[in-house]
Amino acid sequence: MNTKLRSFVAGAVGMVVAFGIVELVHGLYQPVPSVLLAVAQRVIEFTPGEFATRAVETLGKADIPVLITVTTLLTLALAGFLAYLSLRSRLLALAGVVVLAVVALAASFTEPSVVPVPTILTIVGALYAGSVVARFLLSASELRASESVSQQEPTAEAEGEPSTVGVRSKEAHSTRGIAVPRRNFLLLSGGAAVAGLAAGGAGRLLGGGSAQQTSTAAPLELPGSAASVAETLPTPPPEASIDVPGMPPVITPAEDFYLIDTVITPPRIDAESWTLKVMGEVDNPIELSYNDLISLPTRESDVTLSCISNEVGGSLVSNGRWTGVLLSDVLAEAGVSRDKISQASEQLVGRSVDGWTAGFQTDIALDGREALVAFGLNGSELPLDHGYPVRLVVPGLYGYVSATKWLTEIELTDWDFDAYWIQRSWAKEGPIQTQSRIDTVGDDDNLSAGTVQIGGVAWAPHRGIDRVEVSTDNGETWNDAQLATQLALDTWRLYVYDWEAEPGEYTLKVRATDGEGETQTEEEAAPHPSGATGYHTVKATVS
Ligand SMILES: Nc1nc2c(c(=O)[nH]1)N[C@H]1C(S)=C(S)[C@@H](COP(=O)(O)O)O[C@H]1N2
Ligand SMILES: [Mo]
Which atom of ligand 1 is nearest to the CA of 262? Predict the structure, then answer.
C-alpha cells in the first residue's frame, strides 16, 4: 500500500469513527441529529427543480439509500483526502476539518428538533476523535514520521509556519515512541472501522432510525368515546368492491398506501406538545393543541389521494378513510369565512414541522368539499410516515399543493407565495387529472381464450366517475365497463369489463369520464408540470 493510499485510508477510517460517534449519540439522544441524514436531507432540499423532481418524486423513496450512500462515500473520500493533505500541510488539513464541522453543524441546525449545545459538542467531539484516530493510524504506519523526516521538499507552509513546524516535529518525535509495524496498519484500520461501524449500528438500533412504522399506528382515541365522531361512515358496501384477481381493495390498507415526501426519516412529533397555528391574513390568529383540535366536530371521509408524479398506469394513488375535522371549521375558529377572502388571503399554505409547504386557493377549503385537517387513517392514528399526528387532505388536489403532512401551521397569504414544489417548477395549481388504470391484466400477460375480466380503478376526485370504457383493439372501438358503487365523489371507482377473448395479440386501453361529462384526454403528457395524461395501455396475448 503506498503512502497516498495509506493516508487516504487513515482519514476515511477516522471519519467512520466520527460518524459512528454521532450516530451513537443520536441513538441515545434524538435531539442530536444524525449528521449524515441531516446532510443528505439538505442535499434534497437544495437540489434544483427538475433534478429533484425526478430523483425525489418519481423514484419515490428508492433513491434515498443511493443518496445516503453517495453522501457517505463522498465524505469518506474527503476525509481521506484531508489526511493525505495533512502530510503536506497540517494547516490546510485542519482548515478542511473546520469546513466539515461547519457543514455538519449547518445541516444539523436546520433539523426540526435540534438542541444546540449537545449537538455542537457531539459534532466537534466526533471530528476531534476522528482526527485523533486518523493521526494514530498515520503514525502507526510510520507515515507521518517518515514523511516529515525524509521528505526531500517540505512544503512552503511547513517551512514558513513556525507553529506548524513545531507541532509537526513534536508529533514526529512522539509518534516514533508509539510506532507500530507497518503490517499492523490494515489490522488497526480495520479494527477502528469496525468500532466506528459498531457504534453507528448501535446508534441506529437504539434510535429505531429506520423504522417507518406504517403498520404500527395506534388505534385512534377521541375524547369521550368513538360516539363523539359526529359522522362515522358505514363499512363500504360489497357493491363498492369487485372481486377479481389483481383488483385493488376499495379502501387501501395503510401499509399499502403510497408514500411520497421529501424527508429521509419522518419527523417524530409528540402530540402532547404539538400545536397548529392558523395565522397570516386572518381576523383571529389561533393556536390549537391536539386536544383542542380533536374536540371540534369530527368526521370520517373517504378521499382518494394522488401524487402528481404518478405516471399513467402508476401506483402513486390510493384511497383512504380519513378521520379529521373540517378545515373550514378550523378556519372558522380563526375568523376566516368565504365572504372574507381577499387578495391578501387568497392562498392557504400548509407548513410542516420540517418547513415543507403546500398551497392552494383558500376558496377550495370553503367551497363545501370535505377538506380535512386529518388525524386518522382507516380507523387508526396517522402512521408516522403519513403525517402523524396531523395532516391536510383536500379532495380533488394533488398532494404536492395540498396534503401537508406533519402539519403545524396554516397561513393565509396572497397568491405570490410559491410553496416547495412550485419553487421547483411544478404547476401552481394542481387539480387531479381524470385517470384510469388497468389492474387485472399486466403488460405482456399471456391470457387463455374465453372470458377475461379487464378491471381496475378510475378516479377524478371531487368530480366523480360516471363512465369507464375499455378498448381491446388499441382504441378503435370502446366497450362500457360495469362500475362498482362509488363510495363518494372524492374517491376512485372500481370497474370491470368481461371480454370474450379469442386467440391473438391485443392492445388494451381504458378511459374514464368524470361526473361533469368530461372524458379524460387521450393526449399523452408526462407528470411534469401538471400531471400525467393519456390512456393506460396494456399489451396482452390470448392463446
Ligand atoms: N410535510 C410534507 N408533506 C407532504 C409531502 C412532503 O414532502 N412533506 N409530500 C406531499 C406529496 S407530493 C404527496 S403526493 C402526498 C403524499 O402523501 P402520502 O405519502 O401520505 O401518500 O403528501 C404531500 N405532503
Ligand atoms: Mo406528490
Answer: 7
Domain housing 379: 224-413
Number of domains, the chain: 3
Which residue did the predictor score with more confidence, 181 or 36? 36
Question: By the 8 A CB rule, do 10 and 83 touch?
Answer: yes
CA atoms in the 13 A half-sphere facing the CB of 66: 8
The secondary structure of 385-414 as a DSSP string is GGTTT-EEE-TTB-HHHH--SSEEEEEEE-
Q: Ligand 1 center to residue 215 CA distance, Å?
A: 18
Q: Is-contact 413 274, C-beta < 8 A?
A: no
- Separation of 479 CA from ligand 2 center, angstroms? 32
Q: What is the DSSP letter of 319?
A: E
Residue 352 CB less than 6 A away from ligand 1: yes
Nearest ligand, CA of residue 358? 1
| CATH number for position 472 | 2.60.40.650
- Interval 491-520 mean pLDDT: 98
pLDDT at 266 over 60: yes
**Position 262 in a domain:** yes
Within-domain flag for 418: no
Q: Is the pLDDT of residue 174 over 50?
A: no
Closest atom of ligand 1 to CA, residue 386? 20
C-alpha cell at 17: 469513527
How crowded is residue 266: how many other Cβ atoms within 10 Å of its Cβ? 21
CATH of the domain at 260: 3.90.420.10
Strand pairing of 372-377 and 493-501?
unpaired
What is this structure's pTM? 0.83
Nearest ligand, CA of residue 260?
1
Cα(245) to ligand 1 centroid in Å equals 30
pLDDT grade for 524, boundaries at 50, 70 and 90: very high
- Identify the nearest ligand to the CA of 531 by its number: 2
Higher pLDDT, 434 or 220: 434
317 alpha carbon, closest ligand: 1
Same domain assignment for residues 65 and 181: yes
Is residue 258 lining ligand 1, measured as CB closer than 6 Å?
yes
Output the CA 513–ligand 2 centroid distance in Å: 23
Q: 394 CA distance to ligand 2 centroid (A)? A: 13
Cβ 133 vs Cβ 16: under 8 Å: no
CB of 405 within 6 A of ligand 1: the answer is yes
Ligand 1 probe mutation, 307, 384, 405, most atoms within 8 A of CB? 405
Chain segment 374-420, per-residue pLDDT in tens? 999 999 999 999 999 999 999 999 999 999 999 999 999 999 999 99
Sorting pLDDT into bands at 50, 70 and 90, what band is 57?
A: low
Confidence category of residue 368, pLDDT binned at 50, 70, 90: very high
Chain segment 178-233, per-residue pLDDT in tens: 555 566 888 899 999 999 999 999 988 887 644 444 446 788 887 765 445 556 89
Ligand 1 contact, 386 CB (< 6 A) = yes
Interhelix angle 116-140/143-150, nearest 10 degrees: 70
